[in-house]
Amino acid sequence: MPKSMTAYGRGEASGPDATVKVEIRSLNHRFLDLQLRLPKALWPLEDQLRKVVAAHLSRGRVEIFITLTYQEQAQPALSVNRPLLAAAIQALREIQAAADLAQPWGWDQLLAIKELISISEARSPRPPFCGRPWQQPWRRP
């Protein structure tokens, strides 16, 4: 007698840096149809997660939703391209001298240079629980 593929489960794990919530739904289906919804921080682990699920399931429509919440919201980092800044200041001084401009240049000319200041997303050094859940064997009740 075949067993039903219809199921729902939800779990949560917390660590010192983050909380991970996982929600899994499955329906009966002839083939394995895996749908993953992951946060950007876990995208590098998508292939590994697909392999783990495929190793344990051969059929069914399986939807996995993972949310990741960091305990402290990290602020984005700003960085200044100092060599470009020095070159831009020198170029603006040359333009001012060559055109005999009385009005000195200002911040708006410098900030118009796109590559002068870059904004990087603050990231955790590594995703929390990286590797731990998939290294443990799954046990059926």
Walkthrough of the structure:
The protein has helices spanning 46-56, 82-99, 107-111, 132-135, and strands at 7-14, 18-27, 32-37, 60-70, 77-80, 117-120. By secondary structure, it is of the alpha+beta class. It has two domains: 7-73 and 123-135; 77-120, no CATH class. The strands form two sheets. A four-stranded mixed beta sheet has the order 1-2-4-3, covered by helices on one side. Helix 1 links the parallel strand 3 and strand 4. The radius of gyration is 26 Å and the shape is elongated.
Topology (elements, then pairings):
Layout (H helix, E strand, L loop, with lengths): L6 E8 L3 E10 L4 E6 L8 H11 L3 E11 L6 E4 L1 H18 L7 H5 L5 E4 L11 H4 L6
Parallel strand pairs: 3-4
Antiparallel strand pairs: 1-2, 2-4, 5-6
Beta-strand fraction estimate: 25-35%
Low-confidence stretches: 134-141
Number of domains: 2
Mean pLDDT: 79
How many angstroms separate the termini?
18 Å
Order of helices and strands: EEEHEEHHEH
Could you tell me the number of beta strands?
A: 6
Count of separate DSSP helical elements: 4
Largest sheet composition? 4 strands, mixed
Helix content: 25-40%
Q: Report the C-alpha radius of gyration, rounded.
A: 26 Å
List the strand order in the largest sheet.
1-2-4-3
Shape: elongated
Find the structural class using helix and strand composition. Answer: alpha+beta
Characteristic key phrases:
141 residues; alpha+beta; 2 domains; four-stranded mixed β-sheet; two-stranded antiparallel ribbon; 6 strands; disordered C terminus
